[in-house]
UniProtKB/TrEMBL annotation:
This is Uncharacterized protein. It comes from the Bacteria. The lineage of its organism: Bacteria, Pseudomonadati, Bacteroidota, Cytophagia, Cytophagales. It comes from Flexibacter flexilis DSM 6793.
Length: 96
């Protein structure tokens, strides 16, 4: 999906000409979903995982993977790969 791309500070990114950057936004959208809380998205109140809090809780690796997959599926991602590497969740693919 093409959309405006953010820069490293989560501001709208700009190219060398000062124009807004547009490109594949799947990774950016997955990041936003993983880092926000449920209730942060007015139009979709169940969207959001708060990955930082979940990863520090007593959740098992399988429960964490399933929570991530549930969020991806709810946002219409159909081709994804989620794994736990060195105790941390890694999403190596997320496509619609």
């Amino acid at each position: 999906m093409a959309d405006f791309l953010d820069d490293d500070d989560d501001d709208i990114g700009a190219d060398a000409n000062g124009d807004m950057k547009i490109g594949n936004s799947n990774a950016q959208e997955v990041y936003s979903i993983m880092m926000t809380n449920q209730g942060n998205w007015r139009n979709s109140p169940l969207t959001g995982l708060n990955l930082l809090a979940k990863s520090k809780s007593n959740i098992t690796a399988n429960e964490l993977i399933r929570a991530i997959e549930t969020q991806l599926e709810a946002d219409n991602f159909i081709d994804y790969k989620v794994a736990i590497v060195e105790g941390k969740p890694v999403i190596t693919r997320a496509e619609r």
